[in-house]
Write a structure and sequence with these properties.
By secondary structure, the chain is α/β, with parallel strands linked by helices. It has eleven helices and nine strands. The longest helix has 17 residues, at 230-246. Bound molecules: NADP nicotinamide-adenine-dinucleotide phosphate (NAP). Residues 3-247 form the NmrA-like domain.
Length: 275
């Protein structure tokens, strides 16, 4: 049973990747900055992806590594380059980097940092696999179930949101060595929907009212974004401005091909527990 190390394994994405890797029969080692004992079946090691502390030990003896950075972290490019070097130095055969769709979109600095990280990881290991997911359906499932999708951008822009469980299934396949070395793949969801359409479909799926509301950027800063400061706030405001301009869509083809089944829809994700 190959051992795989998943960085950032306590976050939304990392948890999903750990679950999918365990379900595939891989021996999983997750990292966190604190001690974790969650009964998930994964082993845990203390490491900090941002400082690099503990990473070399976390990679020791692993066959594959999932390189994942906390969201909108300003040091992503350098930290991912270091993680790739440490993983290869520890003898890890397969690197999988969690990027984003449109990593060269210059309107969003955090996308550009992922573009830089892709190049840096590939410079260390040309065979690394790069996954480029669109934004997740699960960013909005909780709000939809609570009856309101409130966003600080236009309600009529298209998004091809992707199910995090589907992304994690592909991640686990990549960790298991089932994607060709050097693959870069965009993971868009199966539907292109505006926030207004997401709300309408959520009403149908859940059988109760779900409102779509456009809030101002100022309302976001004073409300949901009040605890987000500095460059992270600037990154998210830049992202909202890009969403306001064009939405965020991505090719849905590769995901269904890799899954070997239709990808999960918004209505299906709403009826499932978040994963
Ligand atoms: N959300 C989306 O729609 C989406 C779409 C495409 C790509 N992505 C990308 O997916 C990646 C993962 O996002 P996520 O939201 O799942 O992760 P996250 O929760 O932002 O971070 C993952 C883990 O990193 C650790 N962490 C947090 N802040 C840190 C810091 N300052 N220094 C060191 N470690 C820190 C935390 O673990 P401990 O506290 O346990 O150490 C956290 O659980 C991001 O790079 C994001 O850009 C997200």
């Amino acid at each position: 049973m190959p051992t795989v190390t998943v960085l950032g394994a306590t976050g939304k994405t990392g948890r999903a990747v750990v679950r999918a890797a365990l379900a595939r029969g891989l021996a999983v080692r997750g990292t966190s900055r604190r001690h974790v004992d969650d009964g998930s079946g994964a082993g845990w090691l203390v490491a900090d992806v941002a400082s690099g502390q503990g990473l070399a030990e976390a990679f020791e003896g692993a066959e594959a590594a999932y390189l994942l950075m906390p969201n909108v972290h300003p040091g992503e490019t350098e930290a991912m380059a270091r993680a790739a070097r440490l993983a290869r130095g520890a003898g890890v055969d397969r690197l999988v980097y969690h990027s984003v769709a449109d990593p060269d979109d210059a309107r969003m600095p955090h996308h550009l940092r992922k573009g830089g990280a892709e190049e840096a990881v590939r410079a260390v290991d040309p065979g690394a696999v790069v996954l480029r997911p669109c934004a997740y359906l699960q960013n909005l499932t909780g709000a939809a179930r609570a009856g309101q999708l409130a966003v600080p951008y236009r309600l009529d822009r298209p998004f091809s949101l992707v199910d995090l469980g589907d992304v994690a299934e592909v991640a686990a396949a990549a960790l298991a060595g089932e994607l060709p070395a050097g693959t870069t793949v965009t993971l868009g969801g199966p539907e292109e929907l505006t926030v207004a359409q997401l709300a309408a479909r959520a009403e149908q799926a859940l059988g109760r009212p779900v409102a779509a509301t456009r809030t101002s950027v100022q309302e976001w800063v004073a409300g949901p974004g009040a605890q987000v400061h500095g460059s992270a706030r600037e990154d998210l405001l830049a992202m909202f401005a890009a969403y306001d301009e064009t939405g965020f869509t991505a090719d849905p083809g590769p995901l269904a091909r890799l899954l070997g089944r239709p990808a999960t829809t918004w209505a299906q994700a709403l009826r499932l527990e978040d994963r």
